[in-house]
Amino acid sequence: MTVSQPKMKKIKPGESPNAFTGTSDRNQLNPIFARAGEATDFPMDRMPDQESLAETAYQIVHDEAMLDGNARLNLATFVSTWMDPHAAKLYSETADKNMIDKDEYPQTAAIETRCWVMLASLWNAPDAKKAIGTSTIGSSEACMLGGLALKRRWQLARKAAGKSTDKPNLVLSSAVQVCWEKFCNYWDVEARYVPISDDHKVLDGFELEKYVDENTIGVVAIMGVTYTGMYEPVAQIAAALDKIEADTGLDVKIHVDGASGGMIAPFLQPDLDWDFRVERVVSISTSAHKYGLVYPGLGWVVWRTVGDLPSDLVFDVTYLGGHMPTFALNFSRPGAQVLLQYYLFLRLGWDGYYKVQKTSQDVAVFLSSEIAKMPAFELWNDGTDIPVFAWQLKPGHTDKWNLYHLSERLRLKGWLVPAYPMPDNLSNITVQRVVVRNGLSRNLAESLIEDIKEAVEYLDRLESPMPTEGLKASFTH
User: Fold this and answer.
1) Are strands 169-173 and 216-222 parallel, antiparallel or unpaired?
2) Which parts of the sequence are annotated with region: Disordered (predicted)?
3) 294-329 pLDDT, tens per residue?
4) CATH code (residue 116)
C-alpha cells in the first residue's frame, strides 16, 4: 500500500519551510534573534517607520533592561524591589485603574480612604476618623503637599493679622532629602538649613532659635535621614519649639517626613514619640514604595485633623459625571499601587509588618557589626533606627584607595553600594551606605561581607595609589 505524501510548496530563495504546514513563514520560523528587526538595529532616538511583531519589540526591550543591575543587589536604593506572586498578580489585574476616576472606580477610592485612616491610627492621631489624608505618587509629592499646607496656614494667619506674607521660610536639616530643596525652590520659600556636625549628626533642636522667626512656616523633622538612616528626635525638636514659643510667642508647627521611618518606627520603636502624639506635629508623610513594601510609586500624607489642611487647597472636580474632592498635585495616576498597599495591610497586619521590618533590621545590625570589626572602617551609625547604616574609611588606614574604589570593586560582584560625600560642614567626609530592604536575606548579607573583605584585601595589597580620575559619587534617595 502506498501512502501519499502531502504536497509541499516550492520554497523560494530566502524562505524557510514550515515543518508543520509545509508553508513558509519567515517571522514565525526563524529563531527570534535572527528575525528582521531583531537581527538589525532599531533606531535609538526616533520612532521606527514600520511596525514590528510584539514578540520582537518585547525581546528588544527585555534585553535592554537586562543591562541594568540586579535590583535585589542594589543596596543604594530605598525603593521596594520585590513583592510576592499574589501582589504581582493583583498588580497586573488592576494596572488599568486611574486613581482620579473615583466615580468610575468607587471601590478603589474607598480602599484609598481605608488605607490613610489605618495610617492615621498607626501614627496615633487623636481621632483617625477626624484626620484627613491622601495617596500620592511618592513621598516627594506627599512632602510637597505637607509643605504647601504649612505655607498656606502661615499665609492665612499673617493676612488675618494684617502682616506681610512676602518672605516665608522653612527650617530643615542640611541632610534633608532633595525633594525639600525642590519644594522651597518651586514655591518661593527660603530654605534655612541647620548644618549637621560630628556633635549634632541630625537636626535635634540645637540652636534652633537662630533659624526660627515670624516668617517660619514650619520645621521639617526626618524619620530616617537619607544620608545615614538616623532618626531626628521629633519630641526634642518640639521641646525646642515650645521654648521658642514661650520666649517669643511664635507657634511653629512640625511636618514629619517619615519617608522610611514612618513605616518602621510604629513596629520597631512603638514607644518612641515622633508622630501625632507630639502635639506640634500637624502632618506626616511616608513613602509606601519604601518600607511600606509596595512597588513604586506610592506615597501617603495624613494631617492630624481636617482643620490642619487649609480648605482652599482642596478642589472639587467634576470628572466623568461625578464630583470629587482632590488635593494631590497629580491628576491621573495609578490606582493599582493603592490596592497593593491595602493587600499588604490585610496580608501582613501589624504582626507581619513587625516581622518583616525586624528581619531587615536584624540583617542591618549584623552587617554593621561585621563592618565595624574590619580595621579599615568606622561606623557612622549601626542601623538600629531604620535598617540603614553608613561607614567611613578610618583616618590613616591607607593612602592607596578610598571608598569610591571599594564601591567599584563591589560592583564587579554585582553589588551596588554607594559612596558619597556628606552634606555641607561635613563634605570632607566620604561614607558608604547600605539600605537593607525586604529581600536582602541573611545569606546574601554574609556573601556581601565576604565580598567586602575580599575587596579590601585586594586594595590593601596595592603598592601604589589607585587612580582617582573619573570616580563618581553614587547616591540614591
Assistant:
1) parallel
2) 1-26
3) 999 999 999 999 999 998 888 766 655 555 667 877
4) 3.40.640.10
